[in-house]
Amino acid sequence: MRRVRVSSHQSPVQKLGDSQMKLSPKFRLAITPPPSSFPSSSASSELESPQKLGPLIPGLPDDIALNCLLRLPVEAHSAGRLVCRRWHRLLANKERFFSQRKALGFRNPWLFTLAFHRCTGKIQWQVLDLTHFSWHTIPAMPCKDRVCPCGFGCIAIPPDGTLLVCGGLVSDMDCPLHLVLKYEMYKNRWTIMSRMLAARSFFAGGVIDGMVYVAGGYSKDQYELNSAEVLDPVKGNWRPVASMRANMVAYDSAVLNGRLYATEGCVWPFLSSPTGQVYDPKTDSWGDMAVGMREGWTGSSVVVDGHLFVISEYERMKVKVYDGESDSWDVVESSPIPEQIRKPFSVNSVGSRIFIVGRGLHVAVGHVEKKSCAGSDGKGRRQSFSVQWQDIDVPQVFVDLTPSSTQVLYA
Question: In 83-234, which ranges are continuous DSSP H helix?
């Protein structure tokens, strides 16, 4: 097991940018840009005026120099801004920096974790740069203080660098929310989108072909919903889709082969079999989840290379993978998950890597490798997997934070 040390002394938590938002009582955003956000006309030409300000990097054409500077890790920006005026203009404004990266096709993964303080309940997003393994913060979400972080539905649209936080629950009133918040990494700010048709919390959600689907969850008075709806992120409007076959609160959900899978999960002492449903957007219809899939879905799921993996919450955090042909779960051969990873935890994946974020925001990275073995009938071969884990040390300031959701964006 390898260790990647990212201590609080070596890599403090950085800000991706300064918050530009103030929240009025009715959830309306009042944008208050700092003076440096909108430079003057003379400043706006700095990057394009090498004859006046000199080259970005002496001896290199500006296009090559810009390509180099856009690879600088965010934690190096504060020092880079001191080099010259042109570097300051590029690195001082994160919207400009990430927009330039997008224009040139840079796509590095960032791990966004919604966490709450175990004593105060205050919620916050912490962001891990998966290229340089450094931590960063983003502006606070414009929402009420007394919300239950686990009630949110957090859904990422990775190619767009967009994160949606939908619904939720006012913790002191048990009142679900219609609220939909959108964070755009290229702009480093939150905006409020059109609210959902139904207020809901603890629901299933996922992205299929660029459309955002949500289903089930709790309504008022802890009433379970069967309604479902879809958001067009471009147009910004919600519309209803086929209702679920039964009212259901989702414990976990995943998108696999163009379908949304939702499970209510197993609850100790396992007196009843869990419910699971599958939505197919091509036919706009729901079906029952296969028996073996729903009964073995005992933890948080992640999809790697078209295969559904689960980090079990009840079997000493075993890693399992689902085999659709036999409708069964296979235990994945793996090194021990680092002992620092404690429940509750959240999971996500990037390529062939699984990321588990545990209490205190300790992160374990699982490197998934494919294998092949003979089929159960002795004929043909079937795929199997192994996982090797490494852990990442985190700043001590995270010791009281508990993860609620983990999402991946590219920028």
Answer: 85-92, 94-103
Q: How many domains does the chain have?
A: 1
Structural domain of residue 385, as residue ranges? 2-11+106-410
The CA dihedral of 16, 405, 152, 24, to the nearest 10 degrees, is -20
- pLDDT tens column, 267-299: 655 566 788 999 999 999 999 999 999 999 999
Residue 319's CATH number: 2.120.10.80
Angstrom distances, CA of residue 207 to CA of 189, 237, 255, 307, 410: 21, 15, 7, 16, 15
Residue 6, in any domain of the structure:
yes
Three-state secondary-structure class, residue 141: coil
Peptide bond into 55 cis (omega under 30): no
Q: Taking the complete model, does pTM exceed 0.90, yes or no?
A: no
341 lies in some domain: yes
Cα(405)–Cα(201) distance, rounded to whole angstroms?
A: 14
| Contact residues for 330 (Cβ-Cβ < 8 A; gap 6+) | 320, 321, 323, 384
**241 near 198, Cβ under 8 Å?**
no
How far apart (Å, rounded) are the C-alpha atoms in residues 23 and 71? 34
- pLDDT mean across residues, the chain: 85
User: For residues 128 and 86, what is the distance between their CA atoms, to the nearest angstrom?
Assistant: 27
Class of residue 229 by CB neighbours under 10 A (exposed 0-12, middle 13-18, buried 19+): middle
Beta bridge partners of 184: 162, 189
